[in-house]
Amino acid sequence: MDRVYWGRPVPGFGDPSARVVLVGLAPAAHGGNRTGRVFTGDRSGDWLYAALWRTGFANQPQSVAIDDGLELTDAYVLAAVRCAPPENKPTPSERDRCAPFLRRELLLLSNMRVVIVLGQFAHQIVSSELNMKPRPPFGHGMEARAPDGTAMLSSYHPSQRNTFTGTLTEAMLDDVLIRARHLASDAGSE
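and the corresponding structure tokens:
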């Protein structure tokens, strides 16, 4: 690829004391990979950050650049794979090479109570990281609990393929985020 940013790893972003963590597939080649912030500068990010804003997790509805003033409250966003994979399909070796970074980032988020997995790939990776055996089924709005009590909510990924076809609507994504907020609050009162 002739772009200087191609293949550059992208870290997670958000509130380090977040109770709600969102995990996507990988940074978009000309979005997060270009801007240096996950889900920033691409259509998936447009959908995700608008939903986070509508549900009270973000201070603004869009994310276009790493220095655009976006702040997240009680939410943290990261990707299972750190670099844009060819054709948006990470290989098993890419997944395995990135797993220690995901694992470490999840461990650092010590207030995490709920993980929202965006898409089936993230669902598989996070299920494994949370020691969920057998792996719960994937489906939009599905809920499961890890052995440590962490709730996992599944959502379709906010990709153009899903949003353009109506597979994922704004209301569907908002519902998952609202449910996550309730689960995080309930976990804090236990």
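(Above: one complete record from the training split.) The chain has six helices and six strands.
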